[in-house]
User: What shape does this take?
Amino acid sequence: MQYEQAVSTMTNIVATFTNYIGKHLPDDIMDKLRQLRSAEVSPLATLVYDSMFENLAKADELDRPCCQDTGVIQYFLKAGADFPLLSDVRAILDEATRIATQTAPLRHNAVEIFVEKNTGDNTGDRIPWIDWDIVPNDSGITLEVYMAGGGCSLPGQGKTLMPAAGYEGVVQFVFDVVTSYGVNACPPLLVGIGIGGSIEVAANLSKKALFRPIGSRNGDPKGAEMELLIERGLNDIGIGPQGLSGNNSVMGVHIEKAARHPSTISVAVSVGCWAHRRGTIHINEDLSYEILSHKGVTL
Assistant: This one.
């Protein structure tokens, strides 16, 4: 395959996948929403869940995004150092975003800072946002596509604590954020928590925590226990679907961590709404691909 043709092929794959993610939730989110729906006893909460599933069915039937706020497009990459198109990935993702904006269509959400002008195609200064992890001795690339709407971005906060605050301070911060702003993010929520030594590390980890499959647990037993305890505590608050009260507030709680400085403990929270539009696709060196988040789907 000629290089220019390969660039065009990958651009079309990513554009089509980005388009698809705006209309179809990943398998694990769908399964969790069904589980939460079956656990509700409140007629109002049940009605809200029913409206969610009706909305998703209409999005599929009409081939339209399942939420009008299709967010700022973000790509989180695990890129093999030997992936043949690595040098052109930035340009490929920019163009894929422009194409998906037209074909989906996606709402125009890229507003340039200071100029305060919407670019009209969801690209702009450093947008779509790209987060890179380079994988040595690998020739493929795995993309996490994420649409972060305004509602689910609003609760995103971070704080650096004195070490004496301990993990109790971390938990208190999480509860303060969710109880203050969570209702704006269209519950039930997926809560990502990052813990590290500086605020930018914690913030990045909290966003990446949102890409873990629902039901997965932190590899550290104490981290896994903390996830469960926070999840149970948030559910006990009873925020319910769309904040209208119910048995559950969250779809899950995921914690990611990095070693910290002895004098600081930073915590950050990122939140995904009930329409958690993320997707995972792995593209091989020959540009064959596998969609990991939506089983059985081909583009």
About this structure: The chain has two domains: 3-23+66-149+277-291, 152-272. The domain at 3-23+66-149+277-291 is CATH 3.30.1330 (60s Ribosomal Protein L30; Chain: A;). The CA atoms of residues 81 and 231 lie 37 Å apart.
